[in-house]
Amino acid sequence: MSSSPILIVDDEPSNLATLKQILGPVYPLAFARNGAECLAAARKHRPILILLDIQMPDMDGYAVCSLLKADPLTESTPVIFVSALGETGAEAAGFDSGGVDYIIKPVSPALVLARVRTHLSLVRATTLERYVKQLEIEQAKTARLSRIHTVLSGTNSAIVRIREPQALMAEACLIVVKLGGFGLAWIGLAEEGGTVLTLAASQGAEPGQLASALGLEAGVAATGLGIPAQVLARGKLLFCNDVRTTAREDRSSQDALSRGYLSIVGLPLVVEEKVVGVMVLYARERGFFDEEELKLLNELSGDISFALQAIEYEKRARFLSYYDPLTALPNTSLFLDRLDQLVKTAARANSGAFVMALNLDRFKQLNDAFGRHVGDQVLRLVAKRLEGAVTSTCSVARLGADNFAVLGEHAHSKDVSTLCEKITSALMAPMVLDGATLHVSARLGVALFPADADTAEALFKNAEVALKQTRSSKTRYLFYSPQLNARMAEKFAMENLLKAAVEKQQFVLHYQPKVDLGTGQIIGAEALIRWQHPERGMVSPAEFIPLAEETGLIGPIGAWVIRTVCAQQAAWLRDFLPVVPIALNLSALQFRESNILEVVREALSEYALDPTWLELELTESLVMQDPEGAEKTLRSFRGLGLSLSLDDFGTGYSSLAYLKRFPFNTVKIDRAFVTDVTRNPGDAAINTAIIGMAHSLRMNVIAEGVETESQLKFLRNRQCDQMQGYYFSRPVLADDFAAMLRGDKHLEMAMEQNADQPTLLIVDNEESTLSALNRALRREGYRILTAQGSLEALELLAAHSVQVVLCDQRLSKTTGVDFLTIVAQLYPDTMRIVLSGYTELQSVLDVVNRAEIYRFLTKPWDDGQLRQNIREAFRRYRPTDAVAAQRVWH
Predict the structure, then answer these.
(1) Residue 772, Cα to own-chain centre: how many angstroms?
(2) Separation between Cα atoms, residue 623 and residue 539, nearest integer Å
(3) What pLDDT does residue 1 have?
(4) Helical pair 554-574 and 482-504, crossing angle rounded to 10 deg
């Protein structure tokens, strides 16, 4: 018997007592005397049956019954009305409100018991039916969940066995359909940022037909797919338990419905927190997916995602073991393995092979200037260009940083040389990245098998030896030779000696004076380092400075120079010597990598030296490696009170835009333009242009490498401010330089005697001809200079103010035409006369056209006519303003 009571509701105690007497002996009872008590008791006791009076004071039985049927807790509890109202309408109202029977008062005990017994039997039957149905539902659910567990188990087994993503996805679809009870399963992978789905695997339908029905052809957007598209966008499981409600809106629901499926679910496939695809399952029944099943399907989604990610990690790990992640080129490990195989194959076939070691020039500076992002793009583009330059039988590798390598077969070294040229040309082509045009170049070292080595390791080592030597040889590529090994051994020994020299401070400074070309006084000096080795003697900077820069020793060496100069200046000041500013050179490595500003500041502070006594010289190429950074550092130097000099101007970029941007005090003309300044019109023009440009920017100009009086006078006539060179003094030790300052050594800058006297230069190979011409013209009042060759004549022109040049057409080592052509370019104001024994028309035309001459005279000459022509030349001479303003000095 059920433990739930029968609830009796009546406002009359006598009626309650009667029903209690009838039913009490058989059933448990509960009582209520009005509608409110009834509702409360029904929720509290959950009665199996309710006997309800109709006429009650607070609310009638119909209203109470309606409320009971509206409450989910009591809606299934049967209600029998017990009332004195016997009209048909009353019974109908009772049934309308939800009652199941109607008993009229006064009640018959037998009738009450019979009616109660009947309805309790119906309740038990209904409860049993509901239980059976629920049991069937639970069994079906358990079976479905069991199938999902089987799917999970089968999928995990596949994950362990399968290490390829395509095969894993196909197996997962098969397991879901075969073991999971789903009618169709398919997986789509995202492309183009998740806007396009491509069918990757399926089970339960022909793939081509399925892709067509879903619109998964290449390039078709996934937006109209419905649930699959939403899963891609949201990254979480989504389902629909009745696709008939959404079939008009999306292609996946339409496809499911057309195949007889009513439920659909989409599972996200996630790799590295990114949705890479979606797995879609179709089920026949409506309402197929419940909370527990969806939870298990979420686990399935996670398992497949984990497996795909693990496969990707494993694939990446295998890739990274043998390939460079940035360029996708083989790495060192794979490259050396391929080189070993190549050498062994070539040895068996008695053929040749080569290996190249390649390094990019100044890549670190580029990376620092433009950032790692641009640097990475450069490396990728270099890799692409290398692969494009080599043949299909070659292999390219990135060995780390800016180092690459190439290997391949070869029949002749000429073929390898051609390949080297092709590679260097390909890499030198401009690169446009992020709006900037970049220029990259490379150096290559090459070793050949079997000529240079018989093992892969030795072959590559020799290629690296050749690569290192390209820097000192100034060539783009170099083939290995045994001599290179000897040079490398020598270089290694020199490096060890240099390290010892740094530790033992085996260096000494020499000082080369700088002279003011206006006063002749020493106005400064350049400190030049020398290496005083105890056994090798004095070592030139040209031998050890490049090695110091290559090995990084230039940092401590440069710091030693700075401190030594500051210490020496401070000592001279204590000795009351008339000191002058001392200039010292900064190398590119010092300027770029060391804390040079702090080094200079500390040295000045340590020796309490005024910054005006120190000058820094920097080359064009140094500051142009990173113009923005250089400008900032240079302004910091100027902020300290230091003077700055731009060294070797004209050999690098020579950009006026950058020259005016940098805060230099002085521009130094490189010795390369000074050596031939008196006889090379190009060098003369460069000197004149540099002087004019620097003066326009309010900078001083100093020429280095001045070795002759003619060079000195030429430069001074062009308004050059200072000179430095052997003409005044070689670099000397500190004590000797101090003696110069103490003794007031200077250049005598006397004015040229007879500077205003008309000056004639006669040039002829024959001394007798010079004497004859001198006799013919000596009474004319000219200052006559003579030269027996063009070089001597050019020296005289540089040293003296000359108005008229009389030259024989034939000279030793050159022709009179060539000489006068140079004179016309160097001294366009001069009046040029040719004296020639050749009178044929072509000779005359050559002289006139090339040398821009004033007169063409023939030998033998008439003295009177000669004098008349030269007088006329002096009368016609018109100096330019610049020439007229010059003061010519010895």
Answers:
(1) 76
(2) 28
(3) 42
(4) 40
Q: Which residues contact 28 (CB under 8 A, 6 or more apart)?
A: 3, 4, 5, 6
List the one residue out of 275, 244, 249, 248 whose CA is nearest residue 262: 244
> From the centroid of its chain, how far is CA 106?
101
CA distance 581 to 514: 10
What per-residue string of b and e applies to 264-291 under the rule 16 or more CB within 10 Å gives b?
A: bbbbbbbbeeebbbbbbbbbeeeebbee
Q: Output the CA angle 790-792-795, nearest 5 degrees.
A: 110
Strands in 855-858's sheet, in edge-to-edge order, are: 783-787, 759-763, 804-808, 831-836, 855-858
Token output for 165: 């993503």
Q: What domains can you pick out in the chain, each with its CATH number? A: 6-107 (3.40.50.2300), 144-319 (3.30.450.40), 323-480 (3.30.70.270), 505-742 (3.20.20.450), 759-885 (3.40.50.2300)
How much is the average pLDDT of 628-653?
A: 83
CA distance 592 to 365: 9
Q: In the sheet where 403-410 sits, what is the strand order?
A: 395-400, 403-410, 352-360, 442-449, 477-479
- What pLDDT does 384 receive? 94
| Mean of per-residue pLDDT scores for the chain | 86
Give the mean model confidence (pLDDT) for residues 241-256: 86
Digit-coded pLDDT (tens) for 160-189? 788 888 999 999 899 888 888 889 999 988
Query: What pLDDT score was predicted for residue 887?
Result: 41
Query: What is Dmax (Cα atoms) for the chain?
Result: 177
Amino acid at site 133:
K
Bridge partners for 347 per DSSP:
none
* Lookup: tokens for 668: 């130094």
How would you classify the pairing of strands 732-733 and 507-516? antiparallel
Tell me the angle at which helices 596-606 and 627-640 cross, rounded to the nearest 10 degrees.
10
What band does 647 get if pLDDT is binned at 50, 70 and 90? confident
What is the predicted pLDDT for the residue at 883? 52
Q: Residue 23: which of 12, 15, 11, 35 has the closest Cα?
A: 15
d(Cα 848, Cα 854) in Å, to the nearest integer?
8
Report DSSP state, residue 780. G
Q: Which two tokens stand for residue 500?
A: 């010892």
β-pairing, 666-669 with 643-649? parallel
Closest CA to 617 of 521, 524, 753, 505: 524
* Tens of pLDDT, residues 94-140: 888 888 888 888 888 888 888 888 888 877 766 666 665 665 555 55
- pTM here is 0.52
Contact predicate 785/760, CB 8 Å: yes
Q: What is the pLDDT of residues 811-829, one digit of tens each?
A: 877 778 788 888 988 898 9
